[in-house]
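Posted in: Protein Modeling Q&A

I'm a second-year student putting together a small comparison for a lab meeting, and my supervisor asked me to include a predicted structure for Putative 3-methyladenine DNA glycosylase. I've never done this before, so apologies if this is the wrong subforum. The sequence is pasted below exactly as I got it from our records. If anyone can share the C-alpha cell output, I'd also love a short note on what stands out.
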Amino acid sequence: MKKLDREFYNRDSVLVAREILGKVLVHEWEGQRIAAKIVEAEAYMGIEDKAAHSYGGRRTKRVEVMYGDPGFVYMFLIYGMYSCFNVVTREKGIPQAVLIRAAEPVEGIQLMAQKRFGKEYEQLSKSQRKGLINGPGKLCIALSLDRSFNGIDLCGDQVYFEEGTDENFNIIATKRVGIDYAGEAKDYLWRFCIEGNE
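Accepted answer (user: helix_wrangler)
Welcome! Here is the predicted structure, written out as C-alpha cells:
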C-alpha cells in the first residue's frame, strides 16, 4: 500500500481527522510489522482551540513539535501513565494535531495481544478482543508506541501511515472526549469515527 506523503498532513486538522479514518498506521518493530486501521480520531485546532495543548500560543518543550513541520508525531501522557499518539498537521508555525483514538487490528495481532494482555489472541475474551486497541492509551501499548516516538517523522520508515483499502463507510462526527474544561470547545463536533465499527 502507498505511504501517505507530507502533503496529506499539511492541511486543516478537522479535514485530516476525517480523512485519516480507514488509513493504516504501521509500526516496523524489531523486524515485524504491526498495523491497524484507524477508526476514530479527534482534531485539535491549535491556538484558537481551548482543548488544544497549544491554545493561546502556549509554547513549551512538550508542545514544540506541534509548531514544526506537518507529518511528525506528537506524543503526550495522560493520567501520568498512558501515551497518546498524535499527528502534527498544518504548516510550520501553526500548532495543530490529530489524536488517534481507536483502530482495528490489521497485522501483528498476536503481538498486540501479548503487549496488552500477555496472552495469545485466541485466549482473549470477546470483550478483550473488542477492547484491544479501542482507546488512545490501549492503541499505544498494543502498537509499542511510547513517548520516545515524540518527533518521529511519519514520512520515514519506522512509523507511518498507508492509504488503506478503498472501502466505503459513513463517518460520524461527535464531541471530543475528556475535555470538559474547554468551555465552548468541548461541544465542537471534531471527533470522527467510522459508523458501525466495533
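A couple of things worth pointing out for your meeting: The mean pLDDT is 94. The CA atoms of residues 117 and 124 lie 8 Å apart.
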